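Aim 2, interim progress: modelling of the glutamine-bound target.
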Amino acid sequence: MNVPAVTDLASALAWARKRIPAPEARLLLRYVRRCQAAHLVAWPEEALPAAEWEIFRNLVERRATGEPVAYLLGEREFYGRAFLVNPKVLIPRPETEVLVELALARFGAESQLKVLDLGTGSGALAITLALELDRADVTGIDWSREALGVAMSNAIRLGARVSFLCSDWYAALGNERYRLIVANPPYVAKSDPHLILGDLRFEPRAALAAGEDGLADLACIAAGAGRHLEKGGCLFMEHGYDQAAAVRSLLADAGFASIASWRDLAGIERVSGGCWTG
Ligand code: GLN
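Predicted structure of the complex, ligand included:
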């Protein structure tokens, strides 16, 4: 391919736009140039130093082969804050903000809540709740030590006080009880063709896939929650677009009351939960 040796911002963008969508090209160039969007518009003729042009070309080519933009930039926004991400953690998704909204609507008025986030990954849920709830005592659990490393970096960067624990779901918790348990566990069926498409190809399989029907981890979390919820506490779990009824029945089997599902911005039932009456 014919690649000019050095270039200016406008020509770099024109080159990239033949390979990836224009908004992504601008994001990657802003990242390389460390500049605001307006800079690209105001100074199209600015020279792009050779080293930056090379980094930009490399990022564009990686994006063209499907690598998620969030992994290329090393961060993704969630609930208005930038979280570090790498291929050891799932990329936070806007639909998971439904879980945050729900927790705040239900518990926002309480102080010093004990909160548990199962499968914390980048820490997006645990850290957001720690920062949005008044003096909450938040614990984030993950089975992956590499994910916990990312979550800890995010907590430090964002100034959130969260305790992180390496555990296979509740295994390492002892008799600890919480007012609120949240989880965005793996819920994609093992054979789901989406696992080999788009961003999902690059994300940790252990954070995505859960057994034949995707319900294995949701079932395990629902079944164990009663031993770790205070009386009157709630469990909220994110799940797949077609799993709401199945998750409500898992919650009913586990002895939960006030079971309900909540829709995401696309109108899909995305989170289900219930209360523990003891
Ligand atoms: N929401 C993710 C998807 O795009 C799955 C995340 C998960 O399994 N928790 O399918």
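The chain is about 40% helix and 20% strand. The two ends are 67 Å apart (CA to CA).
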